[in-house]
Amino acid sequence: MKQVKNVAKQKKLKVVFADPPFGKEAKGEAVTESPNLGILYIIGFARERLPDVQFTYLEPFLSMDEHLQKVKEVKPDVYAISFTTPRRDLAFETIAKVKALGLDMLMVAGGAHPTIDPEDVLKNTAIDVCIVGEGEETTTELIKKVQANESITDVAGTVNRQKNNGLRPLLTDIDFFPAWDIIDFENYDVAVAKKKRMAYLLPIRGCPNYCTYCSNPVWKLEKPWIRQRSPRNIAEEIRYLYGRGIREIYIRSDTFNVDIKWCLQVCDEIEKLGLKGLTFQCNLRANKLTDELAKRLHDIHLWLAHIGLESANDRVLKGIGKNALQADNIRTLELLKKHHIKVYGFLMLYNAWEADGKLEYETPQEVNNTLEFAKNCLRDNLIEYISWSITNPIIGSKLYHIAKKYDIATHNVKIGNCMRLPGISEQQMVEHVKQGMILQLLNGIQKGMITKKGYKRAAQKAVKILNM
Ligand code: B12
Ligand code: SF4
Asked: How far is the CA of 284 from the centre of ligand 2 (A)?
């Protein structure tokens, strides 16, 4: 195992946490909507236990040069980078460039991709240690050991070139905040928001479901799959964010309405705060919404609910393990309309699954149904915004294994990465993607979702799609 330099003589151990540098051109994309909550949670947790450590966060909007410059300036003892699977290549390039600076430091990786595929990271980069799953306790222990100049080979929850140390049990108390104080909210911007200053909030860790296409490796490795914070602690964080000028909060946990009783308590605590001019968005599941909860959500000024509707076909919804059928989707959309809450609907094309030992997938006729459903919902104001994606089997999902088994794994075509489904031509998929994207773009423009700056990009995208 790499020998960590003797830091005992130094005044403060220096730890740099990093997002891959996406650069300013990534403004307006998901990566710069919010700082990395995983990193902020770790810093929030670790600094209380490690007062002699200096933490720095290299944020996603930095350019590669700025990122490298900062690392050179700080000269950290530990450099810890976080990344998801779709950002693997940029992360690997960043790690190589940071390594080439020739500094004497421990290099650590965490987040979704190092969790699901630590071997890939250790084999193909200069990373010394991967942190698997929830990072707060593991990172704190690792830093303590570096500080004490002790061996880090056996830390639970890590994988290194010598050893896989297995998982560390999940935290039982998640009532604490991310290190918001190190963030300037002006640097982040969300495409759809009523208020300029907006922040994400995570009242729940994990999700009780296991949809076939979903890659949620960090929270599916261990039980319980779902943990909730106390309504009072959530309200305290909201009060703090309001004090920082935040006027819109997106409750970003995978599903807010997982436990109706608890959700109503959260609404009560939010209402007690009496904060003027604060609005909310959240993620909801279609199978769990009650009339009472929809009303309470409206009372706390929740104006937008994001819902993964995925498909308009029960055969598909059952196949992908959504635990919600088309009737649930429609009932939920109607309930939300009744209570004046708008909906951002997410849809997937050409999903696939396995049933009775056979490969099944969404047929072109079924994709037509989904498109028709979306059009009607937009017309009837049941959905305000839509987003489409063509199903891509991502590592960490059940679909990834199904795609491998049936040899339909990802291939890159002009519409992006997708599966090779028997009997469905690429052109057929392209036609459906065109229809879906045009609907999405026109609706986005009509609803003012595409900002002045974004028009050029939207127009380029539309031309590209039409020319396919
Ligand atoms: C909020 C969110 C975002 C936010 C904020 C990012 C963030 N990481 O917080 C935004 C909008 C910016 C975002 C963007 C993207 N996201 Co996102 N996001 C989420 C979401 C819904 C919640 C994250 C969360 O709960 N954070 C709370 C903390 C506590 O959890 P955590 O982030 O996983 O961090 C813990 C551990 O992973 C670990 N850890 C994390 N980073 C590090 C780093 C180090 C060094 C260490 C030691 C440990 C460590 O410790 C943390 C604390 O316990 C998750 C779904 C989910 N439920 O996890 C998807 C999810 C993580 N996102 C995903 C994806 C794909 C993306 C994008 C690529 C989307 C896109 N098309 O651009 C980008 C990439 C962003 C990037 N920086 O690379 C996927 C990743 C799948 C995969 N296999 O890689 C997920 C799992 C959603 C899904 N089911 O598909 N995302
Ligand atoms: S898609 Fe949503 S509901 Fe399904 S497993 Fe993933 S996070 Fe949970």
From this structure: 11
CATH architecture of 190-466: Alpha-Beta Barrel (3.20)
Q: Please tell us whether the domain made up of 13-160 is placed in CATH 3.40.50.300.
A: no
| Segment holding 53, helix H or strand E | strand 53-58
Which listed ligand is nearest to 255 at the C-alpha? Answer: 2
Q: Is 145 exposed, middle or buried (0-12, 13-18, 19+ CB in 10 A)?
A: middle
pTM over cut 0.90: yes
Instruction: Give the helix, strand, coil percentages of the chain, each rounded to 5.
Output: 40, 20, 40
For residue 348, give the ligand nearest its CA.
2
Instruction: Using the mean position of ligand 1's atoms as its centre, give its distance from the Cα of residue 1 in Å.
Output: 28
Residue nearest ligand 2's atom 1 by CA:
214
465 to 326, 350, 387, 430: CA distances (angstroms): 29, 18, 15, 9
Could you list the pLDDT tens digit for every one of the 468 residues in the chain? 555 555 545 569 999 999 999 987 676 677 789 999 999 999 999 999 999 999 999 999 999 999 999 999 999 999 999 999 989 999 999 999 999 999 999 999 999 999 999 999 999 999 999 999 999 999 999 999 999 999 999 999 999 999 999 999 999 999 999 999 999 999 998 878 888 889 999 999 999 999 999 998 899 999 999 999 999 999 999 999 999 999 999 999 999 999 999 999 999 999 999 999 999 999 999 998 999 999 999 999 999 999 999 999 999 999 999 999 999 999 999 999 999 999 999 999 999 999 999 999 999 999 999 999 999 999 999 999 998 888 999 888 999 999 999 999 877 666 677 899 999 988 888 889 888 888 888 888 888 776 655 666 777 777 777 777
Does ligand 2 have an atom closer than 6 angstroms to the CB of 211? yes
Domain boundaries, the chain: 13-160, 190-466
Return the residue matching tokens 């004046």: 340
Q: How far is the CA of 197 from the centre of ligand 2 (A)?
A: 27
